Amino acid sequence: MSPGARRRGLLWRVLLCGFIAAPLLPATLWYCAKPLRILAPQADGVICRAAVCVEDPAQMRRAQRLQREAMAAVDHKLVAIKSPPLTIFCSTRKCYRSFGGGAERGATLFDLGVILPPGSWVPYIVEHEYIHMLQAQELGLMGRCLRPDWYIEGMAFSVSDPPAWDLPAYARPLVARYVAWERRTGRENVWREARRLNRFDP
Q1: Who's near 47: CB < 8 A, 6+ residues apart?
Q2: Does residue 178 register a pLDDT over 80?
Q3: What is the pLDDT of residue 18?
Q4: What is the value of pTM for the model shown?
Q5: Does some domain include residue 124?
Q6: Is residue 99 within 8 Å of residue 91, measured between CB atoms?
Q7: What is the span of the domain harbouring residue 152?
Q8: How many domains does the chain have?
Q9: 92 lies in a domain?
Q10: Which residues contact 174 (CB under 8 A, 6 or more apart)?
Q11: What is the predicted pLDDT for the residue at 199?
């Protein structure tokens, strides 16, 4: 067989494999890339009204109130979030894990939305995750990723103001660094000045 014929045969095999695999891609992504399930949360068993999703329909009003209050608090403390973040309030860890959650208290999935496990339905944790959404809004998703941890997590912990007993030990130096920086910068300038920071700033 000539080299040209072998190349054509290989090309046809690749095309055939691609044709067979293409219909399986959405299912593969659904099961392997769990955070992407936030793009179609109802397909994962939650009930949604506007930007609030709950596992337990009886908790819808409570979840909606938490979202409204967290958005108002972030608006008052920083700037307004332009639209309510899609937020999935899970009543079980199974639900939280199904969207890619782990052992953390909550998660912001790219700039797509927020997932909260049971036990994290408290105002300061919802605010914390919404501040991460606001960071993506003001700096861009890549911009948020390129800022230092003391800025990203320090801001979220500092501004959401959790009680001292619920501030993790790892977050304390980040908060101290952020608070000192904000004191010099002024809260009204935190977005402008953040654009001058980079991931490796000490």
Answers
A1: 53, 54, 55, 57, 60
A2: yes
A3: 43
A4: 0.85
A5: yes
A6: no
A7: 33-194
A8: 1
A9: yes
A10: 149, 150, 153, 154, 157
A11: 81
